[in-house]
Write a structure and sequence with these properties.
- By secondary structure, the protein is of the alpha+beta class.
- The protein has a domain of 58 residues.
- 33% of the residues lie in helices and 17% in strands.
- The chain has a two-stranded antiparallel sheet. A two-stranded antiparallel ribbon has the order 3-4.
- It is elongated, with a radius of gyration of 23 Å.
Length: 99
């Protein structure tokens, strides 16, 4: 009589799943902000302009603010200061990653 318990196929599958989870490096975890070349958030677009003007506006290199490990560009110093004062208000949710 065969002892009752887990089937060999299930044990192999569980082992392979555990091995895959252990092999996935922690370095693959997403950065806090989705960035493009040059460490630019939103590919250089002004996050405040989406709310103020209702459309995407390219930011300018002279109006930059470093936040959450990324460089955020703004169309104006005023927009930069709005984000600096309250980053959660105008910054994209989930760091700009698709939710």
């Amino acid at each position: 009589m065969r002892p009752r318990g887990l089937r060999p196929g299930f044990l192999i599958l569980a082992f392979l799943l555990a091995l895959a989870l252990l092999a996935a490096p922690a370095a693959r975890a997403a950065a806090p902000v989705n960035v493009a070349r040059g460490n630019l958030a939103l590919r250089g677009h002004d996050p405040v302009a989406y709310f103020e003007e209702g459309k995407p506006v390219r930011g300018r290199a002279e109006h930059v603010f470093s936040w959450m490990g990324a460089a955020w560009r703004f169309a104006s110093a005023k927009n930069r200061e709005l984000l600096r004062a309250d980053p959660g208000r105008c910054a994209p949710q989930y760091g700009g990653y698709c939710a």
